[in-house]
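Hello Y.,

Per our agreement to keep a running log of every chain we model this quarter, I'm adding this entry. I've kept the format consistent with earlier entries: sequence first, then predicted structure.
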Amino acid sequence: MSGTDWVIPVLLTMVLVYGALHRTDVYGTLTKGAEEGLQVLLRIAPALVGLMTVLAMFRASGALDALSSAAAPLLEWLGIPSETVPLMLLRPLSGSGALAVTGDLIAAYGPDSYVGRVAAVMMGSTETTFYTVAVYFGAAGITRTRHTIPAALTADFTGFLVAALMVRLLFGM
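Predicted structure for the entry above:
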């Protein structure tokens, strides 16, 4: 066994020893935490189901392709490869959808291509905005996002723009 194989057993043992030394009901605390986790899950599940439904409808309707075609000229002018438009549209909505698009871009253009590098940097420097807001705001019981969504989408767009710029500066085109 390697050293990393012992990490989980050692951590669990440390928790049990700490609980015993401080006379804490470790099992009771564990079950209480699990109960609170399930309550949080029940609060955020409707937002997540709605988000996944909207995403599936967006892709199936062809709206993703239409938006990609419409945005391509402006993004090319900004120095962002038009091939990354589907990634930029999906990233704020779905991490798994964006990862699939990134995989497709890297498979089509190669990992060392300008498009592949920009897609990889975009994935690492932006967030799944709507998912994050749904989870965190849902867990905290916040229902009005007011300025959060516009600010987060502005940050995402800035991340997309800077990703293309940095890849161009560091690797050339």
